[in-house]
Amino acid sequence: MKTLFKSVLALLALAVVSVGCVDNSSKKGALGNSAAEKVYVAPGEHDEFYAFVSGGFSGQLAVYGLPSGRLFKVIPVFSVDAEKAYGFNEETKPMLNTSHGFIPWDDSHHPDISQTNGELDGRYVFINGNNTPRIAKIDLTTFETTEIIEVPNSAGNHSSSFVTENTEYVVAGTRFSVPYPQRDMPINEYKGNFKGALSFISVDPADGGMDLKFQIMMPGFDYDLSHPGRGDSHGWFFFTTYNTEEAHSLLEVNASQNDKDFIAAINWKKIEEYVNNGGGTKAPANYAHNVYDEHTHTATSTMKKEVLIVNPTDVPGAIYFMPTPKSPHGCDVDPSGEYIVGSGKLAAELTIHSFSKMLKAIEDKNFDGDAYGIPILNYEATLAGSVKQPGLGPLHTEFDGKGNAYTTFFISSEVVKWKLGTWEVIDRKPTYYSVGHLMIPGGNSRKPFGKYVLAMNKITKDRYLPTGPEVTQSAQLYDITGEKMELLLDFPTIGEPHYAAGIPADIVAKNSKKFFKLEDNKHEHAVKSEAEAKVVRDGNEVHIYLTMIRSHFAPDNIEGVQVGDKVYFHVTNLEQDYDVPHGVSMIGAQTSELLIMPGQTETFMWYPKQVGVWPFYCTDFCSALHQEMQGYVRVSPKGSNVPISFTLDDDAVDSE
Amino acid sequence: MKTKFIIALMVLAFVSCTKEKQAETKSETKQEQTKTHGQAGVAAVEGEQPNALQVAMSIEDFSTLVVAIQKAGVEDAVVNAGPLTIFAPLNSAFAKLPEGTVETLIKPENKKQLSFILVNHVAPANYPIKQLKKEVKKGRKLYMASGKYLVVENKDGEIYVGGTKILKSVKVSNGWIHVIDDVLVPAE
């Protein structure tokens, strides 16, 4: 019996080992070139690329690693973020100021990374707010939004925020044309009266400071997307247009009447020269310019009152229209700067214009009339070629730097690879589902890093575990190193992953700040040691100057606050150590927590409404004694004679 | 006999898989090369204050203590966010112990005992001298990571812990180091 048992056991053991063996060999076959291995970034290892993916209607910008698809940070840009107190604390509220007042949300669309000599330099990311037109700048040393400029005379700020070869300008074009100047007028008098502003915002080479240098007041079309020239075409900027019909209602029908709309080619160098020589008209305006200072840890908002307007016909030879079939969306320039790809959303083919042919057509005055005095170039004269029957609903093209282009097709849900010059389709791969934009790191530059393409999908249906009626949108990563594309990974995103910009991690990571130096903290309410902590009454305002260090607040017992007071908590994190933030929140405060980095000061407001003794505490798990990091505020009735007092361990904060 | 048969079978099975195994071993090796160090291996950041372990390692007079920390395997604990206060014995303090004590303690089989002695020098709290003076004034003992309590005294402005004088104090990124010239050996 025992022997039999052992024999059975032996056979079983053999079976198990054999099966394991078979499994292993098949697994190994898959492992040899598996998608999983290509996106696997081992614990503790770093990704090869940063991907900055806009959150669309979330208003933010998400930072992912590629190839892993891991989310590192959501940078608040146009929407308030209670997690980071963005738009909640006194320091960042001015960032969201506009001519319409404080706006807590926007629709973030097209991030673009700053460039030097046509290559990514990794200093800043720019991104546009679509709804209440704004351009934001994110500093890639802190990964924080440090500047936002409102764009006047615009609406639906969509063909934005793309940069020129040396980040001379970040460009913003209006999607919706509006009356210029804005006025009370009948909507059906749109045609000829509405204008489309193309804004050129200069970027200071030293500190990145943005300034609205000029606006070109174009005909009242819809300006959809844009990209800069590069190489020989540096100095030009190209904008797709739709609704050249100038319809004001039911655009889905009325803006699809013309066989061709235009790509506007703008010689911005020529216009820059014109305005530098005193050209253009200074017009009244009202728009916010908001700047966050890293040393005061505080933003300021300034209302600007003037803008320089350029009338296109005043600068002959600077602006031309290139006819492009059927409401083109994407307007993409290849790494050489020679080809300008127009993706006619409703067209049966992709249209590629040639920059050199465009110059020739201009020289030959090969025009087919004009629109509002702007010459329309002959379609055949600028045409380099077209990709025949590439798919349905082309949207956006990026380039791998090896002579290939990759275009997304929304309606047929696919990415199509084709060859520049021969225009032949090489490969097509499905997306899951309804892809919008796509991204190759450095794809909008002279030097793309053609290893991966990231496709961003609007619809996912059955792709993930269901989460009720609202399901995630997604991004999909393809390996593009071979002749055929290979789908590697599919990951959920925040908001709508509308558009993205990618960059090799080593360009950016080395500049990433670790913490703020306390000695450089110029915040007007900073306290740099516990001994300086204090509580000051000024009428019905009480200012609490609080410090934080592992693992206590100083002071942590505060008395003398009264119902009806306006209480400011000015809180400084005294730590000088990487990755030791502290948080703070107060019961009943009608605002968010503060999440304060080492060396930083932030302020929140509290309006005590009830008599009692109310606690505050650290919200970031800072240390082993995080749970002990707490304090109390005594709230007395209005007019009480309890004096202001503040202590730590029942002593004065500066006691020896 | 039967056992030998089983082993033989398994060896046979194993051999037939050798090729795959090699491939697997290779990828496993690759994984093993990935970062498996604890927090103690995180590189120092420029401009950042060094942590307790980094400070101890930079001072020759603490070489015995550092060896003991490494042998006890408590490096990660002394670089953690803390806050912590270490009463750090100098080499001369260890030299005062009966001959052979240190050698015995750093033997692998005594790791637990060594670890206990070391954490008895660490308080899980922020105790600068100013705070230690307060502790004396308020009659409080220091709770140590070993679970024991340490008596703190103020003799004419000099602070003593467990009967030994604090010679010097160093602020570190995750707390404080107070230098002492005795090993604080728990009663048992």
Commentary on this structure:
Chain A has seven helices and 46 strands. Chain A is mainly beta. Chain A folds into two domains: 461 residues, 7 Propeller (Methylamine Dehydrogenase, Chain H), CATH 2.130.10.10; 130 residues, Immunoglobulin-like (Sandwich), CATH 2.60.40. The radius of gyration of chain A is 29 Å and the shape is globular. The N and C termini of chain A lie far apart (83 Å). In chain A, 50% of the residues are buried. Chain B has a domain of 94 residues: FAS1 domain (Roll), CATH 2.30.180.10. Chain B is built from nine helices and nine strands. In chain B, helix 4 crosses helix 8. The N terminus of chain B is likely disordered. The interface between A and B is large, with 37 and 41 residues.
Instruction: Please count the helical segments of chain B.
Output: 9
What portion of residues of chain A belong to β-strands? 35-45%
- Alpha carbon gap, first and last residue of chain A: 83 Å
Indicate the radius of gyration of chain A in whole angstroms: 29 Å
Global Rg of chain B:
23 Å
Level-2 CATH architecture of the largest domain in chain A? 7 Propeller
Q: By helix and strand content of chain B, what is the structural category? A: alpha+beta
**Quaternary structure classification:** heterodimer
CATH class of the domain at 49-127 and 166-180 in chain B: Mainly Beta
Number of DSSP E strands of chain B? 9
Helical percentage of chain A: 10-25%
Biggest interface = A-B, 37 and 41 residues
Q: Helical region count of chain A?
A: 7
From the 3D structure, determine the CATH topology of the domain at 49-127 and 166-180 in chain B. Answer: FAS1 domain
